[in-house]
Amino acid sequence: MKTAYVNTIESFGNVDGPGIRFILFLQGCPLRCKYCHNRDSWETNVGREMSVEDVMEKVRKYKPFFETSGGGITVSGGEPLLQIPFIIELFKACKKEGIHTNIDTSGFIRLTAQSKELLDELMTYTDMMMLDVKLMDPDGHKELVGVPNEGILEFGRYVASKGMPLWIRRVLVPGVSDSEEDLLATAAYINSLGTVERVDVLPYHPMGEPKWEELGYEYPLKGQRTPTESEVTRAEEILKL
CATH number of the domain that 117 lies in? Predict the structure, then answer.
């Protein structure tokens, strides 16, 4: 029986895919994003262990809301692709019951023959993916989230080559991820994929700061301002499809 380590569950999400979403936040993440609002999700093999049927028992309660809103389940994190075998079994169960499936991922996964085999199987049960493209500049990306971005960009190209519908997300941090040069490079990358259906600019916010401090960590972006409405609009204009 496949199980996964779960961080939290959100029952009525409305920004993590189309319609009303049941959002399963899995535990564990290889990234170290300075603005992460789920700092407690980084560690692996901790949290609440749940089976596919445990999750499905909860998901089924929301099927009427999915049907009226065009919603479904979104698996997020942490980084959900750390637990692909579980998601495969979960999405198999969802598809048997006509439930729309979505993965919200950073795309940080090493593409090997074995991982591609798992991804290919996963994609047969996945209706769409949401991919964060945090920065195109390699050095800036590593400074912001602690890992290189080459593999993430390769992941995006790989899943797009399989015809996977994508929504792209960009967290806009003033002075960090908002340069015109990097936004233009991001737009070029997005347009090269061919399966992107939507691009969302997410204004940076410090909502994760209390959680960092509660866990005993210093918040890396303390004092960082949020973007203005005009800055968000500018980024949206550059990144629009």
Answer: 3.20.20.70
Cα–Cα distance for residue pair 204/211, rounded to 1 Å: 16
pLDDT digits (tens, 9 = 90+) for 22-62: 999 999 999 999 999 999 999 999 999 999 999 999 999 99
What's the predicted TM-score (pTM) here? Answer: 0.95
In total, how many domains does the chain have?
Answer: 1
Q: Which two tokens stand for residue 213?
A: 């401090």
8 A C-beta contact, residue 99 and residue 128: no
Q: What is the pLDDT of residues 78-104, one digit of tens each?
A: 999 999 999 999 999 999 999 999 999
Angle at 137 between CA 135 and CA 140, to 5 degrees: 80
Residues present in the chain in total? 241
